[in-house]
Amino acid sequence: MKKFLKEIFGVGILFFYYMKWIIFIGSPILYFGLDYKFNYIVNILWIYSFGLIVKDFVYLVILKRRY
Length: 67
Fold this sequence. Notes:
Layout: H1 2-33, H2 40-62
Helix pairs in contact: 1-2
């Protein structure tokens, strides 16, 4: 079970590392440009992606640190 949870965590990290900008920019385009219906899951993913982008900004610009 512990190995399974580590694999899921790793997949989540990789997914959001590459998809955060696509989700952050694509979700408003879907809602306002293509008239998609309101979806809670996409909104949660958008908020999480926004948080990751803010975290990256704080690390790189304010704290001047790299990972």
